[in-house]
Amino acid sequence: MPIFRGEEEVIKKNMALEQEKIYTTEYIEALPEGERVELIDGQLFYMATPTTTHQGLLGFLYGVIWNHIRENRGNCKVYPAPLAVYLNRDNKTYLEPDIILVCDPGKMKEKGCYGAPDFVAEIVSPSTQSRDYLLKLNKYQDAGVKEYWILDIKRDTIHVYDFAGRTKTTYGFEEKVRLGVLEGLEVDFSEFEQ
To answer: Cα(160)–Cα(182) distance, rounded to whole angstroms?
Structure first.
């Protein structure tokens, strides 16, 4: 079938629109169990299998926070990935942060967290770097997350964004980092064994 002048551009635009399909949480919830994806403003992002270093750091940080809450009889709850966060309470954003801390029990349902957690930690991997440093940073701030940590093992940095105080502080993995949303908690990253 011959293509007339102008038709080629229409075909290209239609193909681009098909590639820019807007996904919803219903699509994600219908995926086979074990398939990990995130959804940001209707755009789908597949997640790679985490490394042992990633999982070790996740376990270390989760354990420190969990123990602090238990020892101080705190009301907040800490959750490791994978756990769904319906950040904007809409059907176009669905995240699975590495660690969340939620102090409002009304936000937690059986399927996950509905609304902004008080604290979010993301451990950077090569496949998530641009999302963690840009997309998620903005999404978490706009949604009302109080504190956001980006842990980047390769760069030996922990970026702490205190959205309430409008500050950003960078630490190394040999330092102690105070978790602002939990009174009295300092995480000594020198104790983390890679």
So the answer is: 14
The one-character DSSP state at 89 is: S
Length of the chain: 194
**Which residue blocks in 84-150 are alpha helix, DSSP H?**
129-130, 136-143
Q: In this structure, which amino acid lies at residue 170?
A: T
What is the distance between the alpha carbons of residues 190 and 64, in angstroms, rounded to a whole number? Answer: 13
- The pTM score is 0.87
Instruction: Walk along the chain (194 residues) and give the pLDDT tens digit of each residue.
Output: 444 444 444 344 444 434 578 999 999 999 998 888 999 999 999 998 899 999 999 999 999 999 999 999 989 999 999 999 999 878 999 999 999 999 999 999 999 999 999 999 999 988 888 899 999 999 999 999 999 999 999 999 999 999 988 999 999 999 999 999 999 999 999 999 87
Report whether 141 contacts 155 (CB < 8 A): no
